[in-house]
Amino acid sequence: MGRDEEYDRFDREIEAMGVRIKDADTVKVRSDVFDEVTLIALYKLVHRKLISVIGGPISTGKEANVFYGERDGRGIAIKIYRIQTANFKAMTDYLAGDRRFSSVRGSRKGIVFAWTKKEFSNLSRAYDTGIPVPEPLAFDRNILLMEFLGEEERAYPQLRNAEVADYGAVYQQILGYVRLLYQEARLVHADLSEYNILYHEKPYLIDMGQAVTLDHPRAGAFLLRDIKNINRYFSRYCDVQDEREIVGAIAGSKETGR
Fold first, then answer.
1. Is the pLDDT score of 225 beyond 90?
2. HSE-CB of 234 using CA atoms within 13 angstroms
3. Residue 40, Cβ neighbours under 10 Å: how many?
4. Average pLDDT over residues 130-148
5. Which of 12, 59, 197, 198 could form a disulfide with 159 if both were Cys (CB 3.0 to 4.6 A apart)?
6. Please, which residues bridge with residue 146 across strands?
7. Among residues 191, 215, 239, 242, which one is catalytic?
8. 203 with 196: CB under 8 angstroms?
9. How far apart are CA 202 and CA 147, in angstroms?
10. pLDDT at 160
């Protein structure tokens, strides 16, 4: 069976389950994303009545693609980690230092599955703490379902592309999120920047797969790096605080390196 026939069959089977393929653009990236493992995960999520519409791509990347979807009229984001192109070594390094996943070993596929579960867990901890992140809904294998952050099927812009009226206020909001994430959710984002923050009336943190627990051996270094990234971006628009003083206020002097 050729690839076109395979995906025609995919469309028919998905639609037979009551799921509507909403955007023809999905077809353009399907051959790179919807491999056999992904199709199995998608079928299971559809059978669980968690997806009723599959739309077009929201974002594409080397490690993951995000598609718009719906569940009973509610917008959702369908994040699919790409098993063949994911950064296997980086994922392994983040997982190895995290007690929740330190026992994970084996194939690229197994690492990606663990990474998907890790992002779901991190989002759950952040969301339960009240930090503005997409609400995690479900996961299976390499697919993560989340709340869609956007309007009319268009995602909120990344902070770097957003119109912000008061950068100083938004800077303080984000520092507050980092503090809550550390002190209440017991996590460090570990990849925080203007690329992993969406903005619409307030900032939202996204892409939490690499976030680590505080007992990770590099948690302090990751926290400092996050603050440096935020200061680097906001220093163009407003006054910023000393990065080590911020880290000290969040985590205590032991993380400042003094």
1. yes
2. 27
3. 14
4. 97
5. 197
6. 77, 136
7. 191
8. no
9. 16
10. 98
* DSSP code of residue 158: B
207 has catalytic annotation: yes
Model pLDDT, residue 22: 73
Domains of the chain: 3-151 (3.30.200.20), 157-255 (1.10.510.10)
Q: Is residue 204 classed as helix, strand or coil in its secondary structure?
A: strand
Percentage of the residues of the chain whose pLDDT score is greater than 90: 62
Q: Which amino acid is at 8?
A: D
Q: What is this structure's pTM?
A: 0.89
Q: Which is nearest to 207 in space by CA: 98, 53, 58?
A: 58
- Local structure of 10: helix, strand or coil: helix
String of DSSP letters for 89-119: HHHHHHHHT-TTTTT--S-HHHHHHHHHHHH
What digits encode the pLDDT tens for the residues 145-200?
999 999 999 999 999 999 999 999 999 999 999 999 999 999 999 999 999 999 99
* Distance in angstroms (rounded) separating the CA atoms of residues 49 and 182: 35
The one catalytic residue in 98, 140, 207, 226 is 207
Question: Is 191 an active-site residue?
Answer: yes
User: In the structure, how many helices (H) and strands (E) does the chain have?
Assistant: 8, 12
**138 to each of 31, 39, 142, how far by Cα in Å?**
24, 16, 11
